[in-house]
Design a protein that fits this description.
- It comes from Haptolina brevifila.
- This protein has 7 helices and 3 strands; from the N terminus they run αααααβββαα.
- The chain is mainly α and about 140 residues long.
- It has one domain.
- β1 and β2 (about 80-85) form a beta hairpin.
- α3 (about 35-45) crosses α6 (about 100-120) and α6 (about 100-120) packs antiparallel against α7 (about 125-140).
- It starts with a helix and ends with a helix.
Length: about 140
């Protein structure tokens, strides 16, 4: 949510550096659920009008890898859902035990949808179609 809030900072380098820290620095990207691709996509629409411009386009490969990293480590084929501990999803233990988390499924939909738009803006039609299909899968 920091990137979403940072959309309104006039100095673009603040959020650009923050995004670089998370994706090319020492940031621990999977400690909690977050929607980096969606936030960067929304920011790029506000600042540049096209997702291919600015930091969003240059981080597309990292954002793509981040999405697939979540699938590798948190997807449950049995439940067809994203699985994690409740505290890592920003919820209290009393809100539900470890298991399938609808909040992460929703975040994955937003990420796939954003990645589809970013890929299309970059002219990468195969990745755009792939992520469009992923968004449809999560939307079910």
């Amino acid at each position: 949510h920091h990137i979403m809030e940072g959309r309104w900072i006039r100095d673009e380098t603040v959020v650009d550096d923050y995004a670089r820290f998370w994706f090319r620095g020492d940031g621990w990207r999977k400690q909690y659920t977050w929607w980096a691709a969606y936030a960067l996509w929304q920011r790029s629409l506000l600042l540049h009008h096209r997702p291919s411009e600015g930091i969003t386009g240059s981080l597309f490969g990292d954002l793509d890898a981040h999405y697939h990293s979540w699938l590798r480590t948190h997807y449950s084929p049995r439940g067809e859902c994203m699985f994690t501990s409740c505290h890592a999803d920003g919820e209290e233990n009393s809100a539900g035990l470890d298991g399938c988390r609808p909040t992460i499924n929703a975040a994955m939909y937003g990420e796939a949808n954003a990645l589809s738009h970013i890929a299309a803006s970059l002219g990468n039609e195969s990745r755009a179609r792939y992520f469009e299909a992923e968004a449809s899968r999560w939307r079910r």
